[in-house]
Design a protein that fits this description.
The complex is a heterodimer of chains A (110) and B (607). Chain A is α/β, with parallel strands linked by helices and 110 residues long. Chain A has helices at residues 25-35, 54-70, 81-90, 102-108; strands spanning 2-8, 11-17, 41-45, 73-77, 97-99. In chain A, helix 1 (25-35) runs parallel beside helix 2. The relative contact order of chain A is 0.19. Chain B has a five-stranded mixed β-barrel. In chain B, strands 20-26-22-23 form a four-stranded antiparallel β-sheet. The chains are: A alpha/beta (110), B alpha+beta (607). The interface between A and B is medium-sized, with 14 and 17 residues.
């Protein structure tokens, strides 16, 4: 999995590319946790992720926990149907703000 | 100033020394040898403790004739303070049997009838006369068996505990509706509460779900004070209680797979490979017991995380499978308890909370340096179960030690029954251990006392243990059964009067669900019939086609000492069946396309 992180219009945009599973979750974790700072606004574009395993789900929760503790805001966009279903079925979806498109995500982050 | 110079009412439990017809009074000696004079009042009345759904038998004038020496009874009355002394006058008497020396809970089917009544109560409370559907399950059940109607929380471990109850009720009665409730509950837990972690190849269980109409929200980590934002071992352990008891009946391989993968969770994440034992909490995200996010629960071990595996599911999993893996794990937990929990240089109560290196944690949340009476008794009970599998001297010695010290510090020798939470140590100037919160008596702690002393007597044949078992059982059956609304009370006051306040007024709550009362009935009847009174016991199973490995149905109701019990008769679908190993307590099931109805009679081996 590749992880691209860039700043666009004062938002941090994270673009994981590839599966997030037991092998790649640490890469995602290290990259995303490092950019969560007090007040930061982060858009995670999941459109390049086709599969997320339970390790991926857990790392998303860890991201949520750090963001909450730092008063940072995170919005997920571009979730495919499978990932959306597994996040809904496991209840993890309730922790996140989810939007369909990048524009809607930017709007949600103000 | 400190003199008690007022009248008050209270309960005395004891053995009749003699009845004085002339004075219309009798002498009573308590369990610890103190004597009281009891005078009949103008309106004293008496009854014989009746089972659930049985009519009460009043004694009338016959009560005086019943006061023969040696007979045990409870008498509630008033201590009138007069002439610089107390005169006790009885308001009512409760007898635990119809005849001298008789304790009705020792009847061949007392507890079978009780578990049936409990099962009926909870079926009706949860599902009414409708089709059994766990969408309608509620954690909260009121005193009278009603449910709240607005949005609600369904907790994994309370559903699982009730499923345990229904499964146990089926094993004693063969009543199909109990099995249906157990199976549907197990399916519901699998569908709604189970998280299969494919990366780790483990299963863990959600704390619960919130249901708002058709919408369901999963609650990942515990939301209760002690366990907030963590995966407590306690909840994972009890998530298996109901499914495992159901597995004993059906052999459903899906349940076995869940149990195996949950045990994998314990082995890989809760087990402390370095210092031994099981951690009490995991970080729900990293599955790390040493995560700083766990706060006060970081890298801790406690009674529940080590000791609750055995009674909640592990003994039953072993009974159903005979797997060496579970026998070893059982032995490991009991060795750990025996090695680390005894603290008799400092307290008559075991130590229950630990840091990772097994040093004592005496500051944890509400527990501080306090002992739960029922946990001590539960250790004695379960050590004696394990003794049937591994008869180690240290297990017997530890169980005997608890049995010896607990009546004086956790039992009520004045009124009968067992207290709740006690301060483990005396402060300077104190002679009696203090109640940590109150002197009420909880139903589940009575269970531990009854089962501990029944199995201690059943195996070791010490008459003192039988006496305490009888007294404990008499108190429970006299005061905990709710003859008006059904099932059992959560708490009674020290004097046996029901305590009906707050959540302790409920029959269903986060803390009470339908586990301990059923477990007590299931095992009290098992120990009584098979280890004490020498009577047979009927058991019912309904194995799925090719459910159990090698189609071998193991039928021992509990771990019992080898050679003490054998199969007497087996029926399959109503017809006598002979392919069984009487001493090995197993039935070789025939091939079948449908679930089989199996009825087994087990009985004590004749000397």
């Amino acid at each position: 999995m590749e992880l691209n992180i860039k700043t666009v219009d004062q938002l941090t945009v994270v673009e994981p590319l590839g599966d997030i599973d037991g092998k790649t979750a640490p890469t995602f974790q290290d990259g995303v946790l490092a950019i969560i700072e007090p007040g930061s606004r982060i858009l995670i574009d999941m459109s390049g992720v086709s599969f997320m395993s339970s390790a991926g789900l857990r790392v998303m929760l860890l991201t949520h926990r750090k963001a909450t503790g730092s008063e940072a805001r995170i919005v997920l966009v571009g979730l495919n149907e499978n990932i959306l279903n597994s996040m809904t079925a496991t209840g993890f979806i309730n922790f996140f703000t989810v939007r369909n498109t990048l524009d809607e995500g930017r709007e949600a982050l103000g | 100033m400190d003199k008690i110079d007022f009248s008050f009412s209270d309960l005395i439990a004891g053995y009749v020394i003699q009845f004085d017809e002339e004075k219309d009074s009798f002498q009573l000696k308590t369990s610890d040898g103190r004597e009281f004079s009891v005078k009949f009042a103008a309106n004293t009345y008496a009854w014989i403790a009746n089972n659930l759904l049985e009519p009460r038998q009043w004694c009338g004038e016959q009560m005086r004739d019943m006061l023969v020496p040696g007979r045990y009874l409870f008498t509630y009355g008033t201590f009138y303070q007069e002439h610089d002394a107390f005169n006790f006058e009885a308001q009512y008497l409760v007898f635990p049997g119809r005849k001298p020396g008789e304790f009705l809970p020792e009847k061949q089917d007392w507890w079978v009838r009780q578990i049936e009544a409990l099962g009926e109560f909870y079926l009706k409370a949860q599902f009414g006369d409708e089709v059994i559907n766990y969408d309608n399950y509620r954690t909260t059940i009121t005193l009278t068996g009603e449910k709240p109607l607005d949005h609600f929380r369904q907790e994994t471990d309370t559903i699982s505990r009730l499923v345990y109850g229904f499964a146990s009720a089926y094993m004693f009665t063969g009543e199909e509706r109990f099995l249906e409730a157990a199976q549907k509950g197990t399916d519901y837990l699998r569908e709604h509460m189970r998280f299969v972690d494919l990366d780790e190849d483990i299963v863990y269980w959600y704390h619960g779900i919130d249901v708002h109409g058709d919408r369901e929200t999963k609650i990942f980590a515990s939301e209760f004070g002690d366990d907030f934002d963590a995966i407590p071992a306690y909840e994972q352990i009890y998530a298996l209680a109901g499914p495992t008891q159901t597995y004993r009946i059906t052999g459903d391989p899906r349940i076995l797979k869940d149990a195996e993968q949950t045990v994998d969770l314990f082995d890989r994440f809760f087990l402390d490979q370095e210092k031994g034992g099981y951690f009490s909490h995991l970080d729900p995200i990293t599955l790390d017991p040493r995560s700083d996010a766990l706060g006060e629960n970081r890298a801790k071990k406690n009674w529940n995380s080590v000791g609750d595996h055995a009674p909640a599911y592990l003994i039953n999993l072993y009974l159903a499978t005979g797997e060496e893996r579970y026998r070893k794990m059982l032995e490991y937990t009991f060795d750990t308890i025996t090695h680390h929990f005894q603290d008799y240089d400092n307290s008559p109560f075991v130590q229950e909370k630990f840091y990772q290196d097994w040093s004592h944690d005496t500051t944890h949340m509400w527990q501080q340096n306090r002992g739960v009476v029922g946990h001590n008794l539960k250790i004695a009970w379960n050590l004696m179960r394990m003794y049937g599998l591994a008869p180690k001297e240290e297990y017997e010695a530890f169980a005997r030690k608890i049995a010896k010290v607990m009546p004086a510090v956790g039992g009520d020798s004045q009124r009968g029954g067992w207290f709740d939470v006690m301060e483990r140590r005396l402060c300077p100037g104190q002679e009696r251990h203090r109640y940590a919160f109150h002197d009420r008596k909880a139903w589940w702690q009575q269970e531990q006392g009854i089962l501990a002393y029944l199995i201690l007597h059943g195996i070791l044949k010490d008459e003192e243990y039988l006496r305490i078992a009888r007294e404990s059982s008499a108190f429970y059956n006299a005061f905990f059964l709710d003859h008006d609304d059904g099932a059992v009370y959560f708490n009674v006051l020290a004097n046996g009067v029901p305590y009906l306040m707050g959540t302790e007024r409920f029959k269903g709550s986060h803390s009470m669900s339908g586990y301990h009362s059923f477990e007590l009935a299931f095992l009290a009847q098992t120990y009584t019939n098979l280890l004490i009174t020498g009577r047979p016991l009927e058991l019912y199973f309904k194995p799925l086609p090719d459910g159990f490995q090698d189609r071998l149905l193991r039928v021992s109701p509990d771990i019992l000492p080898p050679g003490r019990v054998r199969i007497e008769q087996v029926w399959i679908d109503g017809a006598p069946y002979h392919e069984y190993d009487a001493e090995g307590l197993s039935v070789a099931l025939p091939q079948s396309e449908e679930p089989l109805q199996v009825k087994v009679v087990v009985a004590p081996t004749k000397d």
